[in-house]
Specification:
By secondary structure, the protein is mainly α.
Length: 212
């Protein structure tokens, strides 16, 4: 067990720095098998978490989604919310490129599981807002678009009730918009819900001041 944990610590540093990713990914797959052999749920969860980052950076989408789906139904494995959100990003990208409702449902499943673990997790809530906005943009029927818009508003109101959820959602949106992965859907959220998003930014700013 100590050997696996030491290797995992070393790999975590490499994944964080995004170096030797292919080698790290293969080692993590091997560590996952070893963690299974010693039947250690905590280590399995830790390996899955690092694997989700490595797979995302390497764009091993189908492989990671398959692995995570296998463990999602395991009652003995407490998958971290970060790993669930990373996998949701993979399936959401699939939904963006294909419009396949199966990918959308997978994304919702992973996000809901993350929110079941931490109900005010802003990373998951922010990603769910993006997902609903993607769905809104793809929909052609006006009555259906209005229903989706209502769902988005309900979710925004839920986020506004929590200081940390507001802070983490705004942090996520600002981080994404400053990156090469800039999202048109985040821009649309700000345009469609300007008053609500200003309120969220204000809550986020106050939370950051008080937290600091």
């Amino acid at each position: 067990r100590s050997s696996i944990e030491q290797q995992l610590t070393d790999i975590k540093n490499k994944v964080t720095q995004r170096i030797e990713l292919d080698e790290s990914y293969n080692t993590l797959i091997s560590l996952l098998s070893k963690a299974e052999e010693i039947k250690n749920p905590r280590i399995i969860s830790n390996v899955l978490n690092e694997l989700s980052y490595a797979a995302f950076y390497l764009k091993k989408d189908s492989e990671m989604e398959r692995i995570m789906s296998t463990y999602l139904e395991r009652q003995d494995i407490d998958i971290r919310e970060t790993a669930l959100v990373n996998t949701a990003l993979i399936t959401m990208n699939g939904y963006i490129s294909t419009g396949d409702d199966v990918e959308k449902e997978k994304t919702i499943k992973f996000l809901n599981r993350a929110l079941k673990r931490v109900n005010d997790y802003g990373e998951a809530l922010g990603l769910k807002l993006e997902l609903f906005m993607i769905e809104y943009e793809k929909e052609v029927k006006e009555n259906e678009k209005q229903l989706i818009k209502n769902e988005i508003n309900i979710l925004i109101q839920q986020i506004l009730k929590s200081n940390i959820a507001s802070f983490e959602t705004i942090q996520r949106f600002e981080r994404v918009q400053k990156s090469a992965a800039k999202s048109e859907y985040i821009e649309l959220i700000y345009k469609m819900f300007p008053v609500e998003m200003e309120k969220m930014k204000s809550i986020s700013k106050d939370y950051k001041i008080n937290k600091g």
